[in-house]
Amino acid sequence: MAASAHLSRFVDFGRKIICVGRNYSEHAIELGNAIPERPLLFLKPTSSYVEEGSPIKIPFGCSSLHHEIELGVVIKSKCFGIKPEDVMNHVGGFCLALDMTARDFQDEAKKKGHPWTLAKGFDTSCPISSFIPREKIMDPQNIELWCSVNGVARQRGSTKDMIFDVPTLLSYISTYFTLEPGDVVLTGTPSGVGPVNVGDVIEGGITNDLTMKFMVEK
Ligand SMILES: O=C(O)/C=C/C(=O)CC(=O)C(=O)O
Ligand SMILES: [Mg+2]
Fold first, then answer.
1. Which ligand is located closest to the Cα atom of residue 22?
2. Is 155 in the pocket of ligand 1 (CB under 6 A)?
3. What is the mean pLDDT of residues 25-34?
4. Under CATH, domain 3-142+159-195 is a member of which superfamily?
5. For 52-84, what is each residue's pLDDT tens digit?
6. CB of 67 closer than 6 A to ligand 1?
7. Which Gene3D superfamilies does the record match to this protein (predicted)?
8. Distance between CA atoms of 43 and 205, rounded to whole angstroms?
9. Which residue, judged by its Cα, is nearest atom 7 of ligand 1?
10. Predicted ipTM > 0.95
11. What is the pLDDT of residue 14?
C-alpha cells in the first residue's frame, strides 16, 4: 500500500493522540520543570490534526504559540498491558509531528493546577507529516529531529536522549489505555522550543530524510 494511503488510514481511523511531556531532560530544564519519574501523559483530540498544505492557526487569545518537534509512533494493532519487549509488534510505523502549544494558556493552567487541554488540544495543534513505514526506521532511539522557523534552526535533538524510550512509553501507556490501530503516540520534544507568529514558516525533519513545512496564520 502507498505511504499516502497509510496516512489517510491513520488519520481517518481518528482514534487517540497520546502525548508524552518532559521526555528530554534538556527540555524539562529549559521550562524549569523537574525530570519526571514516570511518563507524563496528556491527550489531543483528532480534530487537532493538520496536514501539509493547510495552515497552523493561532488559537483565539493566545499570545505565545510554541513549536515542539516530536517523533510520532503509529499503532497498527489493538493491544493492552503489553510488555516493553513485545510492544513494538504493535507498531505500524512513525510520523513527524509538531505538538503546537499555547504556552501562555499552559502557564496559566499550570499555575491554577488545571488541565492542559486548551493549551495543547486546539484545532491545528497537531501538524503531522506523511506516514513513515516501520522498515524505514529500524531504531527509533537513533533518530535526529530538527525544526526551523523561517529558515533559522530552532531545535535539533536525538531520540537517543529520551528519558523513557519508545518500548517503555508504549508499554506504560498500554497499562492504562487500550492502544488501537491508528492511534498516534507523540514521544516528547527536545530542547529549543520557542514562539512563532503570523506569517512564519515552520519546517521540521528527520536528518537526511523526511521533511514537512507549515505556515502560521491568524
Ligand atoms: O511543563 C511545561 O511547562 C511544559 C511541558 C510540555 O509542554 C511538555 C511537552 O509537550 C513535551 O515535553 O513535549
Ligand atoms: Mg510536546
1. 1
2. no
3. 93
4. Fumarylacetoacetase-like, C-terminal domain (3.90.850.10)
5. 999 999 999 999 999 999 999 999 999 999 999
6. no
7. Fumarylacetoacetase-like, C-terminal domain
8. 23
9. 21
10. yes
11. 53
Give the pLDDT of residue 122. 98
Among residues 133, 156, 145, which one has the least CA distance to residue 211? 145
Ligand 1 atom 9: residue of nearest CA: 21
**How confident is the model over 198-216, as a mean pLDDT?**
94
Domain spans in the chain, listed from the N-terminal domain onward? 3-142+159-195
Q: Is the CB of 21 under 6 A from ligand 1?
A: yes
Protein residue closest via CA to atom 10 of ligand 1: 21
Cα 1 to ligand 2 centre (Å): 30
95, containing H or E segment: strand 91-98
Residue pLDDT, tens place only, 87-144: 999 999 999 999 999 999 999 999 999 999 999 999 999 999 999 999 999 999 999 9
CB contact at 8 A, 85 and 182: no
Q: Strand pairing partners for 194?
A: 67
Nearest alpha carbon, ligand 1 atom 2 = 31
**212: nearest Cα among 131, 134, 142, 152:** 131
